[in-house]
């Protein structure tokens, strides 16, 4: 049994596909697939998608970055407001990682208390679900219009805010166009036995979680992972249980860059990054245990697998935030003891810095 785990990993899929390609070329009776064309289409679509995500993030940061910083700095009036602030900030920036990295900077600078940052982190996870809903809408056919409009705004306007909006719109168009290219590229795999056998193996939740975490670590974007999953589900390559497992794995993979952002910062900033990791790991573990219930809910919400995955993504993050929010202050106290200030072993005598008003 143990020997079957490796071929079903992401690397195992590549090996299987290469073997399947050679087998088909040798006349083995498999469906004919132009593997070079497929690989070029997949890589091209993925590059367009990731570049679009980068452009979108850049445009949104330029258009709303300072306002988001000010918004985050004032999210200290209770856990519910902090949660909503995280949702709004992540929706505006289209990246929970960017939101949390900004948050870590504010905590490190003493502009926000560590305990007040935890609800914002919970809200940022909810904010990431907006992009998955957009991907599931299937509006990629309008991508060229968005790209042209964004390019014209950048080229013709003399106002910086309008140019930033054009960059963001161009990014949205590139993201959707990249998804369209990806969808066309993987279409020949729908009936390929090698791929179908691999996907059956990935129906084991643990393998799906590992694949989702690894892919997200590789491309540094949980939104991109969800986009690829939704595209593959739309082509019938991924069934709901596999898509949910990869979705859960993406929640863990997205923690890497926020942990890196805590290196060399204050203990309060480190605790914020550790909380993000612990919250995602615990909620994913619970999600794996309850994955059948999550799948049942997803099937209830829609008849299409891409929409089911997007809706499950929303439900998972909403429930996780609702469960942990009432205990955020207690969790903050436990983390303060687990990660004490330098020179204060065990956390004795620690004090939370008083947040300074954001400028």
TrEMBL record:
Cross-referenced InterPro entries: Na/Pi_transpt
Entry superkingdom: Bacteria
Keyword Membrane: yes
Transmembrane segments: 40-60, 100-122, 134-156, 168-186, 206-231, 274-295, 315-336
The keyword Transmembrane belongs to this UniProt entry's keyword annotation: yes
Keywords: Cell membrane, Membrane, Signal, Transmembrane, Transmembrane helix
Signal peptide (UniProt feature, chain positions): 1-24
Subcellular compartments: Cell membrane
Membrane topology type: Multi-pass membrane protein
Protein name: Na/Pi cotransporter family protein
Source species of the chain: Muricoccus vinaceus
Species lineage: Bacteria, Pseudomonadati, Pseudomonadota, Alphaproteobacteria, Acetobacterales
